[in-house]
Specification:
Blueprint: E1 3-11, E2 15-24, E3 30-33, H1 40-47, E4 55-60, E5 63-64, H2 70-74, E6 77-81, H3 82-86, H4 96-102, H5 116-128, H6 144-156, E7 162-166, H7 174-190, E8 194-199, E9 211-216, E10 219-225, H8 226-229, H9 232-239, E11 243-248, E12 251-256
Parallel strand pairs: 3-8, 3-9, 6-7, 7-8
Antiparallel strand pairs: 1-2, 1-4, 4-5, 9-10, 11-12
Bound molecules: adenosine-5'-triphosphate (ATP).
Pfam families: ABC_tran
Keywords: ATP-binding, Nucleotide-binding
GO molecular function, one term: ATP hydrolysis activity
């Protein structure tokens, strides 16, 4: 078991997470779907040990939070988020290859000299993600989509067991989004790492995400096989509004039905 969460409750001013149970096995890829404020980031924070459980247990890679040095666990987790991409301003003048290499040292900017094999690994990762053409381009001059793909490469440099992709399509136009989703799909198919893909959007849940966690108001609404959960009936209950879900060409499409006048 890679992630094993039992009865997790996080209380701050209010209950942010309530009795969350969730198990992720090695080799599975999960989507996490929830509206704004559902508790997605809080759950990622708990997994990475940035939030201390009020109640319940968080186990990652077989170790229990509070009983193991979590900085060692964090090294096995790659977290790529849109907000992180905004924090990279210190790295603006670094070129693509340096940004990817910096993932080896978990640093923003490159302060240590990488070994020859690190250069080779970074180049292979960039090639696999289709961003090898950015090797010499300054981070500051890249488009948002290029930055997001490069930051996935940066996370992969540490060979993480778990890759958290936190709303990676935020701010992308439809073409950059399609490109990024294609990159994620290929990465998932290579099975190098277990991916948890966090999103508000049903259409980003690719067939490679065979499992989905539906989170609402800090609680797990449902978790299980994606094809069983992404139905009109379940998502109507989840959204508290009538929606239609269609499965077209391997992609889910959600339409909000117009409210019928009473
Ligand atoms: N430290 C805190 N103290 C009080 N409330 C908090 C704290 N951290 C988060 N919250 C609240 O908990 C709820 C869940 O927040 P969280 O950021 O996890 O949502 P989210 O699902 O990631 O939302 P979004 O999709 O908008 O990013 C929100 O209502 C938020 O305001």
């Amino acid at each position: 078991m890679l992630i094993d969460i039992e009865n997790l409750t996080l209380t701050r001013d209010k209950n942010i997470l309530k009795d969350v149970n969730w198990q992720v096995r090695r080799g599975e890829h999960w989507a996490m779907l929830g509206m704004n404020g559902a508790g997605k980031t809080a759950l990622l924070n708990a997994i990475c040990g940035y939030e201390f459980p009020t109640k319940g247990t968080v186990r990652v890679l077989g170790e229990a939070f509070g009983k193991y040095p979590w900085q060692d666990i964090r090294k096995q987790i790659g977290w790529v988020s849109f907000s992180f991409s905004e924090m990279m301003h210190d790295q603006l003048q670094n070129i693509g290859l340096e940004v990817v290499l910096s993932g080896k040292f978990a640093s923003i900017g490159l302060h240590e000299y990488p070994a020859d094999e690190d250069f080779a690994t970074a180049r292979t990762i960039m090639q696999n993600l289709g961003v090898d053409y950015l090797e010499k381009q300054p981070y500051a001059h890249m488009s948002q989509g290029e930055k997001q793909r490069l930051l996935i490469g940066r996370a992969l440099m540490a060979e993480p067991d778990i890759l958290l992709l936190d709303e990676p399509c935020n701010g992308l136009d439809f073409f950059a989004k399609a490109q990024l989703l294609h990159t994620v799909e290929q990465l998932a198919e290579r099975q190098e790492t277990t991916i948890i893909y966090v999103t508000h959007q049903v259409d980003e849940i690719l067939p490679v995400f065979e499992k989905t966690l539906l989170i609402r108001d800090g609680e797990v609404f449902d978790a299980g096989r994606t094809d069983e959960l992404l139905t009109s009936e379940t998502l109507t209950a989840f959204c508290r509004a009538p929606v239609q879900v269609q499965h077209k060409n391997g992609r889910y499409v959600l339409e909000v039905e117009e409210e019928q006048p009473l």
